[in-house]
Amino acid sequence: MRHIWLLLIALALGQPVSAQFNEKPILNLQNEDLARFNWGYFLGFNQYDFKFEYKDDLGDILVSKSVGFNVGLIGEMRLNEFFDLRFEPGLFYTRRDLGFPGFTSENEAIREVQSTYINFPLLLKVSTRRLGNFKPFIIGGVGAALNLSSNEDSPDDNSSGTFRMKRQVFNYEIGFGIDFYLEYFKFSPSIRGVFALSDELFRDTDPNSPWTGNIESMKTRGLFINFTFE
């Protein structure tokens, strides 16, 4: 999967970006970073996982991950030459399949977890000085997310085949990327890691539930590949 993402980045950049690394490139968008406020959007891919902590050593819950997609908007406020404050609300869709130990029936052991997050991160982008037509950066911050597929309000639980999660989760995000100044717009691929700060599990009614009774906490962690256009 890593090779697919790298290939997509290479295809998205294409020939115009290869010219950015010449010794004396023609500078594109020379006034791009001078505006106080800037706007854009992003598209990308994600792969979410769970980190479990258990009360007793009764066997690990297996997580089968898949590739989801991201889409969102960007609002940026320039603080100075090197620091920008960014708000990046976005929609993140993902699916994870959980395999619980101790069951002989697949219907009881497997739970499909489809999540649609609306993410609201507030991020600080720290960039180097511009080098020709590119500029590396690191980015990080905190955010809150709403899980529209949480099933928190469902009266059913795992005993009826319904896996439930909390609707609201808090997380932090950190990553790195490169701004490429193309002829007509700025293109910025980046790799981000996201880590939940709060427990997302909405437990079954039975405190001794074979699905949730042994879970101390369940927190999301994930990897994002974002392609930003500004």
From TrEMBL:
InterPro entries: Beta-barrel_OMP_2, OMP/PagP_B-barrel. Residues 30-200 form the Outer membrane protein beta-barrel domain. Residues 1-19 form the signal peptide. The keyword Signal applies. SUPFAM superfamilies: OMPA-like. It holds the Pfam family OMP_b-brl_2. Coiled coil: none annotated. It comes from the Bacteria. Keywords: Signal. This is Porin family protein. The lineage of its organism: Bacteria, Pseudomonadati, Bacteroidota, Flavobacteriia, Flavobacteriales.
